[in-house]
Amino acid sequence: MSALANHAFAKMNGIGNEIVVVDLRDSKAGSKAAAVTPEDARAVASPAGVPYDQLMVLQPPRLAGTEAFIRIYNNDGSEAGACGNGMRCVVRRLFEKTGQTSVTFETRAGLLNCWQGPAPDLYTVDMGAPKFGWQDIPLAEEFRDTRYIELQVGPIDAPVLHSPSVVSMGNPHAIFWVDDINAHDLERFGPLLENHPIFPERANITLAHIVDRDRITIRTWERGVGLTRACGSAACATAVAAARLKRANRSVEITLPGGKLAIEWRERDDHVLMTGTADFEYEGRFDPALFASVA
Ligand SMILES: N[C@@H](CCC[C@H](N)C(=O)O)C(=O)O
Fold it and tell me: Closest residue (by CA) to atom 1 of ligand 1?
């Protein structure tokens, strides 16, 4: 039987990024009861389940000083190393239940510190340091300078999209710089680029327009999901990539279809801080019938 059958969940969203939070910390670490399989994750996303972009699963902590080991599933059942919007949802849920105002989690991408503030309805996640090395992103072939890589969509002499910046924020991102983020058919190009052979682990694909040195607008095709109203790690990756190109300041406001995020690429330790809201929608229990065919 699935670890999720009859288990409680909270449906939330981080500026429109659809998030389901499940707390399995009561289960014994490493036990089957603490494990969610890709089939489980897909069953939750099925039409009879609970719609989500990411499923955030809190497992018992593996390291002293951390609250939980968090595993992040996309709705196609694949696992991600990072999810900025999902982290804010987890943090809000936890803080409202416990009165805590700061916490450290372990994820596949490393330790993440999170806190409430700078206003009561805002949550900040320290997303760690970005990585720019081609093997870290990863790319399938060597690129010495990942501020722009050779990759294009459309005719060779008149590409529609070209020369993205690539960054790892614990997950792979490619950012295409454009004049108008709504002028391109991201639903059509997104899957082609997500699965392009240059990205051996696939990639999140973002269209970004630099409004001025303090403001950027983006739209993202998420790996393992599709078009979303917001992608927090894409906002971080875009802010960092724009600052690296010296086209924006290290603190910027990113506007996504679902809302705004404040991103700061901190000079002193290279870490990226993401601040925004998180909204609770409803809670419930997973219907065991969802997992009947999963066994
Ligand atoms: N929504 C997320 C990113 C989720 C993970 C992504 N789809 C991946 O597979 O890397 C965010 O807010 O960062």
Answer: 231
| Annotated catalytic residue within 89, 114, 231, 236 | 231
In a domain, residue 129? The reply is no
CATH number at residue 219: 3.10.310.10
Summarised one tens digit per residue, pLDDT across range 136-180 is 999 999 999 999 999 999 999 999 999 999 999 999 999 999 999
Any ligand 1 atom below 6 A from CB of 277: no
pLDDT tens sequence across 34-50: 789 999 999 999 999 99
Question: Residue 21: which of 13, 11, 35 has the closest Cα?
Answer: 11
Tell me how far CA of residue 48 lies from CA of 55, 70, 275, 290, 291, in angstroms: 16, 25, 33, 7, 11
Please tell me the distance between residue 156's alpha carbon and the centre of ligand 1 in angstroms.
30
Q: Ligand 1 centre and the CA of 110: distance in Å?
A: 15
* Angle, alpha carbons 163-17-212 (nearest 5°): 45
